[in-house]
Design goal:
The complex is a heterodimer of chains A (93) and B (122).
Chain A lengths: L1 H29 L3 H26 L3 H26 L5
Chain B lengths: L9 H27 L3 H4 L4 H22 L5 H31 L17
Helix pairs in contact in B: 1-3, 3-4
The chains are: A mainly alpha (93), B mainly alpha (122).
Chain lengths: 93, 122
């Protein structure tokens, strides 16, 4: 019984996180300016990382968590360099 | 496709289900705020709901699940939690001044109509 509840809530959580990624994609497409797109890209990778975490709970393996850690690391670097580019016009001076 | 869940105590399954579901709901609300807010400076607040509260609840659900199941160590959850907690404010603190700089460079200062509370010599 409780296993069924857990399986269904994992499924619903995956649907919710996928909808959150769709919402971030909408802002990524329509976002009027560059900083809106950078912000929604940031939200997009955080949502994708959470989706991978839920996949990892559902599958029980270790590999989804490694991928989530990599996404967290590389997404931070990407957003910081985008913000630096918006501020200064180049990333490495 | 239903995930197949191994045998575990009922309380652990229920706690994990509640934490994961609550975290996903917070993240969904935060990402919908990204669509609904009107200006960029309001939009900046919305996704941090998913980046802080959503991440921490889903990670703690995962920690409860794998601590009870004892199939793998939970080092990745701790690392991801630490890293997201540290990096999210840095990201937004870099993005907000960049936007302010761009707005002022184009002659639109979003702060010009805000009255400062400390004296009027600004």
């Amino acid at each position: 019984m409780s296993g069924t509840i857990l399986a269904w809530s994992l499924l619903v959580a995956q649907v919710f996180l996928a909808l959150a990624m769709v919402a971030a994609t909408v802002r990524l497409v329509v976002g009027p300016r560059a900083q809106d797109r950078v912000l929604s890209l940031d939200a997009f990778y955080v949502n994708g990382m959470l989706l991978l975490l839920v996949f990892g709970i559902a599958s029980g393996g270790r590999h989804y968590f490694e991928a989530a850690l990599l996404i967290a690391l590389l997404g931070f670097v990407a957003t910081v360099s985008f913000a630096k580019f918006l501020m200064r016009g180049e990333v490495i001076e | 496709m239903m995930p197949d869940v191994p045998e575990m105590p009922a309380w652990a399954a229920l706690v994990t289900a509640a934490l994961v579901l609550v975290g996903a709901t917070f993240t969904l609300i935060g990402s919908f705020g990204l669509i609904r807010m009107r200006t960029f400076y309001q939009r900046l607040h919305a996704p941090s709901l998913g980046a802080t509260l959503g991440t921490l609840t889903i990670l703690s659900g995962s920690i409860v699940y794998f601590l009870v199941l004892q199939t793998r160590p939970v080092t990745y959850e701790v690392l991801i939690g630490l890293f997201i907690t540290v990096t999210t404010p840095i990201t937004f603190l870099l993005l907000a001044p960049a936007t302010l700089y761009r707005d002022r460079f184009e002659g639109r200062d979003p702060l010009e109509n805000i009255k400062l509370s400390r004296g009027d010599d600004e």
